[in-house]
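thread: overnight batch results

M.L. [08:02]
morning all. the overnight job finished for the chain we discussed friday. pasting input first so we're all looking at the same thing
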Amino acid sequence: MINTLADFLCGYPLFILLIGGGFFLFFHSGMVSLRCLPASLRVLREKQTRSSGEQISSLEALASVVAATVGMGNIAGVAIALVMGGPGAIFWMWVSALVGMSTKFHEGVLTTRYKTNTSDGRIAGGTMYMIDRGLGSRWHWLAVTFAVAGMFGTLCIMNANQLTEALMTIFASPESLASNHVVSYMAETSSIAPDTLMRLLIGVAIALTVTLVTIGGIRRIASVASWLVPFMVVVYFMLVTYIIISNIGQVPGVFRSIFAEAFNLRAGWGALAGIAIIGARRAALVNDAGVGTATIMHGASSNNSPVREGLVAMLGPGIDSGFVCTLTALALLLCGDFSSGADGSLRGLSIAVDAFGRAIPGGEYMLMAIVLCFALSSMFSYSFYGTRCASYLFGERAGRCYLWFFIATLVVFAVIPLGMAVGFCDLFYALMAFPTMITLLMLRKEVLEEIRLFRQKDSEKIVIS
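M.L. [08:03]
and the structure it wrote out:
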């Protein structure tokens, strides 16, 4: 039932809203993601400050957003897209990245324009506040819809599930489990299958690690993200560069297959539309553009200039969908095996683990280190997203209680089947995307007004042509 509903909402409705609506914002803003890319890089290089210890800078907000989006989706999500849609799905992920940069710009502008103070004096922003303060009380139901979906959509379903899959693939093969006396004893005592027990233990270890960071609040999350994100992206780039150089003769063919399959009409227009939808659907899980999670993090920034925050925010999709996903796609298309699992089940991260293991001596262990960073960094940021949604609905005290619920679900999602995890995650992402995109489209004129004011005040420092 979950998968059926998710397939419907994440099919044509979500594709039209995210890509169609994103293209509308792209052209309505004068192709801001292309024109203002140099300006966004200049803003990023400016000295970052914060007015209090409870706030974060724009750079820390971007790092935290990228920490959330540069996660399991950039590896497992790309693998799933290639399995379901072939190489052509990658092209549509690129399209989504370009469009998503414009969408993220609108998110950054509006969340800064409409951010507010919480009952305990902290700065808070997000789609729910954009709706309440920008659209008015008659749209409050839409804000509630987003917040409810946000509590469940940010539970790191995919991350916990796929990280567990990867660790099981590397360290817990059936043979090793059978020879492990401790696991065997625990399995017999608890009457739980050894592989399920191992997944449960991995889930507990993940939950404990996330707890150590998230109990420190937004400041600790942003601090960890600001050094972890550059490290993991650079190391991942080095690994993929090695694979590309080792298979340099096949690289032109890989790019030809991406463009050829993106517009392949051999199977008809329906197949082409299916490939495009798969690419956009997976991209929505990767860069979150139009989903609304970034509005929560950028709304916590100490930056009070909406356009400046928008310029920083729009770099996110370029980093994750435009850069990191391309690295993953190249590595998998050069070395990946896209056949289904032994039981016919959908494979995700295990495809990447196998590919890196074949291409690089010890590559599966190196990839696991990167995957661990990717997955945990996402969990750190997503805990904040869900907490803010819960705080909006039930108050600050309830928001703190939600954090413990978030941590407990990491154990649950470590053991459920991948198909259910994908459907559950897609469903709530769609329910977050609809309120966010509707709000961005309805408040688009306010974004143009902020750009006009920015040109008058700051045109000497940052040029937006």
